[in-house]
Amino acid sequence: MFHRSARPALQAPAPEISFELFPPKSDAGLPAFDAAVDALNAFDPAYFSVTYGAGGSTRDRTRACVDRVRARTGRPVAHHLTCVGADRAEIDDMARELWGSGIRRIVALRGDPPDGAPYVPRPDGYAFAADLVDGLLKVADFDLSVSAYPEVHPQAESAQSDLDALKRKFDAGAARAITQYCFDTDTVLRFVDRARAAGIEGTICPGIMPISNFKGMARFSERCGAGVPDWLREMFDGLDETPDVRAMVAASVAVEQSRRLAAEGLTEQHFYTLNSAPLTRAICRALGLRERAAAEAA
């Protein structure tokens, strides 16, 4: 059973934050992308990460955006890499090129094939994320993050097999696991306790999803196996035409979860920003984080 913190959630320490971004579909989206990066960078995140499309479909755009964020912020940026879409030699060559250009962080994932096809390991590729972690560390001493699933990966045979897979990733050398977003905080805490009981000692970093579009989030959740609790649906019911109220509700949900997780000792937190700064900015301010310019002027 998960422990309860003696510290009230309202007195929780401010989290150490990081932000996930995705590559814009075209150059037309770059000005908005840059604006979001600049606004989020003001909160002094530990790092940014940039996603990789299914089957490596955004490979070139991911790399370009990693370089773009590094140039604009001077901060570490984690490049996502997956097992799909390339053989071992190609991935190793890409890793060597990343290391040579100064990129030290990678989010190492099994990944999904394009078009929703079932995952089948390539005979000439890395089969699973643990294999990818092992291979990348043979290339260079990367800081590697992996994924974790409080509600169990939708393709896992069981909760135990999913936990066993996570342990293999840590045993292979992963530095931390970033969780899939999960709105039931008790489920996240139970998952962490189960991981610790299984001998997983590495950092588990909760992923937090600010809800900028409830219907879109609900559709995506169906595909990725993330639950949408009834209480959350009720909170957003009827708010389609009132974006200001919807944003306030979304911020309160994320702030409450972040504070509770921090009070329970999970102070390293990763925000899935969806390239939108305003909502994430409001959440950070409510958590007691201040933009660098505002703090310097105080």
Give an overview in words:
The structure is a single chain. Helices cover 45% and strands 13% of the residues. The chain is α/β, with parallel strands linked by helices and 298 residues long. The protein has one domain (9-297): TIM Barrel. A nine-stranded parallel β-sheet has the order 7-6-5-4-3-2-1-9-8. The radius of gyration is 19 Å and the shape is globular.
Tell me about the largest β-sheet.
Answer: 9 strands, parallel
CATH A-level architecture: Alpha-Beta Barrel
Q: How many structural domains in the coordinates?
A: 1
Describe the global form.
globular
Number of helices: 11
Structural class: alpha/beta
CATH class: Alpha Beta
Q: Write out the strand line-up for the largest beta sheet, numbering strands in chain order.
A: 7-6-5-4-3-2-1-9-8
Termini Cα gap:
43 Å
Q: Beta-sheet strand percentage?
A: 5-15%
Mean pLDDT: 92
Residues in helix, %: 40-55%
Radius of gyration, taken over Cα atoms and rounded to an integer in Å: 19 Å
Topology diagram in text:
Blueprint: E1 16-21, H1 30-41, E2 48-50, H2 59-73, E3 77-82, H3 88-100, E4 105-109, H4 129-139, E5 143-148, H5 159-172, E6 176-179, H6 185-197, E7 203-205, E8 207-208, H7 214-224, H8 230-236, H9 243-263, E9 268-272, H10 277-286, H11 292-297
Parallel strand pairs: 1-2, 1-9, 2-3, 3-4, 4-5, 5-6, 6-7, 8-9
Helix pairs in contact: 1-2, 1-10, 4-5, 9-10
